[in-house]
Write a structure and sequence with these properties.
Blueprint (H helix, E strand, L loop, with lengths): L1 H26 L25 H15 L39 H27 L5 H20 L3 H7 L4 H6 L6 E23 L1 E22 L5 E21 L8 E5 L46
Antiparallel strand pairs: 1-2, 2-3, 3-4
Helix pairs in contact: 4-5
Length: 315
């Protein structure tokens, strides 16, 4: 009698649960979220690490990873190098003192010319080696081409054309030309060539490995140019656009001879020790004005520029 009664109660309970479930589905009844969330009641205190424990833990972690067979990223502290150009001018050309001022018919001019012919033996060997890699290389045509590279590079510099400038100058010459030109306006123009450019020096050398040959050719260029540099306020800092000057320059043109896709690019300049000093740069300086009260106006005619106080320097 107890067993049938028990079965009846279980069946009734199941039917009731089924009806409640159907009602919740039909009415879209959802149980609300719990009012209280379980919170960790255990207190945690910060314990500072011991001295030198961090380095030990890093080494222990690395050793544990190696034991597990995990290969970590290799950290190379080596400094990357660029092999598309050399780091400087090797065996630079030494310009004779008084060049472009002495006549070749004078006694000193004839001595300089004889010394250049005597030193041209090494250059001839280097030119022969350059022609082995560049069959179109000729000293007469190359001097004019070097002057064109010089003019195009400086025009790209005044226009801030970085892509074109990278194709005309080497990675060593690029920062030297662009350093300090931010917020400045450059006006440069090539007016005329006073003397035809000519090749005066040529060298070849290996770098990193034997057979990785680089060629450097020094071109003498005597021309007339005009240069004016303005600061960010539009004030003249150096030079003048109306007064051109005669400039004697020794350009170093370089090429990676082993690379068939390389080209001749401007690598640097040789400044002789006897060259005159450059003109000083005119800097813009702010002169402090008088402190005005509210309602006062500045009178420029009656204002006197304060002079700096004399300072005694001790050596």
């Amino acid at each position: 009698m107890a067993m049938p009664m028990r079965r009846t109660l279980v069946a009734l309970h199941r039917a009731t649960c089924r009806r409640l479930t159907n009602a919740e589905v039909s009415l879209d009844v959802r149980h609300p979220g719990p009012l209280f969330l379980p919170v960790r009641t255990k207190k945690r205190y910060f314990i500072p690490p011991a001295v030198g424990m961090k380095a030990k833990m890093e080494g222990f972690t690395e050793a544990k990873a190696r034991a597990a067979g995990i290969v970590g990223k290799q950290e190379n502290i080596e400094r990357p190098i660029n092999i598309s150009c050399t780091a400087g001018v090797f065996d630079p050309y030494i310009p004779p003192e008084g060049d472009a001022r002495l006549s070749t018919l004078s006694k000193e001019g004839l001595k300089q010319r004889a010394e250049q012919i005597r030193q041209s033996a090494t250059s001839q060997l280097a030119i022969r080696k350059i022609k082995e890699h560049d069959s179109l290389f000729k000293t007469r045509d190359f001097a004019e081409r070097a002057q064109e590279i010089f003019v195009e590079a400086h025009n790209a510099l005044t226009q801030f054309n970085k892509e074109k400038l990278h194709s005309l100058v080497t990675e060593r010459c690029y920062p030297e030309m662009t350093r300090g030109n931010r917020y400045k306006t450059i006006r440069w123009s090539f007016i005329e060539s006073l003397e035809p450019p000519r090749v005066v020096h040529a060298r070849c050398t290996d770098m990193v490995t034997k057979g990785n040959v680089y060629g450097q050719v020094t071109v003498r260029m005597h021309s007339r140019q005009s240069l004016a540099i303005y600061d960010r306020f539009g004030r003249l800092m150096l030079g003048s656009e109306e007064q051109p000057k005669d400039v004697l320059e020794y350009l170093v043109i370089e090429r990676h001879l082993v690379n068939p896709y390389s080209r001749w690019r401007l690598h640097g300049k040789i400044v002789p020790s006897w060259a005159p000093a450059k003109d000083p740069i005119i800097k813009t300086v702010m002169i402090p004005g008088p402190k005005l009260r509210p309602g006062e106006e500045f009178d420029a005619l009656n204002h006197e520029v304060p002079k700096p106080a004399a300072v005694q320097w001790y050596k």
